[in-house]
# Entry
Amino acid sequence: MTLQQLKYFVKIAECGSITEAAQELFIAQPSLSSSVKMLEAEYGLSLFNRSARGIALTPEGSEFLAYARDILEKEDSLNEHFLEGRVHKRQLAVSTHHYAFSVTAFANTVKNLNSSDEYNFTLRETRTYEILDDVASYRSEIGVLFVSDFNRKPLKRVLEDLHLSYHPLFNTKAHVFISKNHPLAVKSFLTLEELMKYPYLSFEQGVYNAFYFSEEVFSEVARSKVIHVSDRATIFNLMAQVNGYTVSTGILHNDLNKEDIVSVPLRPAQDIQIGWISNKKAVPSREARDFVDELCNIISGYGYKVLYGDAESMLQS
# Structure
């Protein structure tokens, strides 16, 4: 086994494709495939599942990836300490539901870096399944998502199966996001019955569209008018243009969200807990810890009690 083989393996795992990895590494695809096969033969492991649709890490491959990254990080530290002039790039990857406070926390983490720091950061606003898979496969260090009474049991089971740790961040109540010009915007609270005649806006979840993977509370309620969208900008535009609504945390950040959107409490009240997940087999980097600290600062700034470090998790129920 060589460090070069480990670097090749990690690049393939990150790209999810031998072809793409070969292009980024500027080497021939057969050479890259041969390198992986040599690793598999040396350790008696099957690192990737190969199919016509592409490749994916096996459970053994995921575990091997954690060790490989650890070795390569130690090599980086060694080179940084002993090789003059070498610059260590800061690394961070975060996968999150479509929350503006996650984006702000990520931006603040970048702003807090030294001006001389080099970095390679990734922020993915994505679907529930991708958040879980990204953290399980080490594509992201941190995932941000919500827990409710409805999705608590299946989500707990998936987290256990994927060897992921859940950390509670804060508790809130479900709110309705609507345009300030919406006919119901003047009300102090809203009910699902009042909203039924308006389009319901939901972030689409692709093939993994079970109700407990939804980003919205009460997603299981039958509705006659539903629009699925893939990004946050679209959902806010549709609120204004078609009087649509969605159900979320109640936190609106005017730096990122349009000021013509308002948040109205939903009745009956529905508890939501926002939390972050990490891989049990990985030690969070300094950058990941900085991001979580920024999340805590933003949440406390909105007046919420930060649960980070507490045992007050809905998944303990």
About this structure: The two ends are 45 Å apart (CA to CA). The CA atoms of residues 152 and 317 lie 9 Å apart.
